Q: What sequence folds into this?
């Protein structure tokens, strides 16, 4: 049984939140994903919208308890020596469904096996087992070193706050409200002058309103540079709240570039080019302002894509004029302007 060793590691990951076209929303979650043989374990689970128990927004005591549980320092939370590996990103209810695995120690090694989809305390491996995943045998020293590092101050990056810069407070207030709805903190300011470095360090991104000039933008960037705080700057594409939220979610992406499912998005007037690294469901939504500055929204594609680059035809009526696309999958979101007149 699993004679060969698999490598074990952890890497930052994001479940991107967003304001959806049906009026609903999904919550932003930062977490650590399990990296098995150099690849996120979550990618092996097809189109699963879930997060690991090692989430950045849980209280420190709960985070520590989750780590110690995976270190097998406490009894398994589910019968049969089973542990939740991925759960619902919106709540912690097992009834929503979770991926579980039996985790046990074998000498110095640690084994993860019998992966299953579980909605109550007992797993049915025959009906709901992930028969193509695992078992994985990890070297105990590598496994414990990765998890113990989290107990020594290496928890996930929790900079889920955004600084909104601009003079048009009403528009920024609507954007801030939408961000707070999905779990991303947002503060509004005219500039960043005089803000202490420890406060600036709490921001993962800065978004500039449409009326912010280049001089003001440069001053904000300098303030963060002086504070020694790396930050992603977002120039709003258009005064469309769901579009701006998607831009900020893209800026808050914490997973390494090599560990993302959605890696490329470009578009011209006839089609969009989308790149994915593993099978996943992708939705493609178009946003534009009409002549009366009303927001027009259209979902242009919703389907599963295999790894590689895909050309998705676009309805010219949905992307005429100044228009933008948002591609979303389980874990990430990309935004692009439609380049009219560009040749494919």
A:
């Amino acid at each position: 049984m699993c004679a060969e060793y698999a490598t074990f590691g952890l890497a930052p990951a994001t479940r991107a939140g967003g304001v959806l076209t049906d009026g609903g929303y999904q919550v932003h979650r930062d977490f650590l994903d399990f990296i098995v043989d150099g690849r996120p374990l979550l990618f092996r689970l097809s189109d699963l919208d879930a997060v690991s128990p090692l989430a950045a927004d849980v209280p420190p005591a709960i985070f520590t308890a989750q780590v110690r549980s995976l270190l097998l320092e406490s009894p398994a939370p589910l019968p049969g020596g089973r542990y939740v590996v991925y759960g619902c990103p919106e709540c912690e209810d097992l009834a929503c469904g979770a991926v579980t695995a039996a985790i046990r120690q074998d000498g110095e090694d640690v084994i993860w096996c019998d992966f299953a989809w579980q909605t109550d305390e007992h797993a049915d491996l025959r009906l709901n087992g992930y028969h193509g995943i695992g078992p994985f045998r990890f070297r105990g020293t590598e496994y414990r070193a990765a998890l113990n590092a989290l107990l020594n101050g290496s928890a996930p990056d929790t900079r889920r706050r955004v600084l909104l810069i601009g003079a048009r407070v009403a528009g920024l207030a609507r954007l801030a409200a939408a961000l707070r709805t999905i779990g991303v903190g947002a503060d509004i300011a005219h500039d960043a002058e005089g803000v202490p470095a420890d406060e600036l360090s709490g921001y993962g991104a800065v978004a500039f309103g449409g009326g912010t000039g280049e001089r003001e933008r440069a001053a904000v960037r300098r303030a963060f540079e002086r504070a020694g705080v790396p930050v992603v700057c977002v120039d709003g594409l258009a005064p469309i709240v769901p579009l701006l939220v998607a831009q900020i979610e893209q800026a808050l992406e914490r997973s390494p570039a090599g560990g993302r499912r959605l890696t490329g998005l470009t578009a011209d007037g006839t089609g969009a080019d989308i790149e994915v690294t593993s099978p996943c469901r992708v939705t493609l939504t178009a946003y534009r302002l009409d002549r009366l500055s009303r927001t027009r929204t259209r979902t242009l594609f919703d389907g599963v894509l295999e790894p590689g680059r895909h050309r998705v035809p676009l309805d010219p009526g949905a992307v005429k004029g100044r228009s933008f696309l948002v591609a979303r999958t389980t874990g990430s979101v990309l935004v692009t302007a439609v380049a009219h007149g560009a040749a494919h």
The CA atoms of residues 10 and 34 lie 5 Å apart. The chain has three domains: 5-152, 161-251, 260-337.
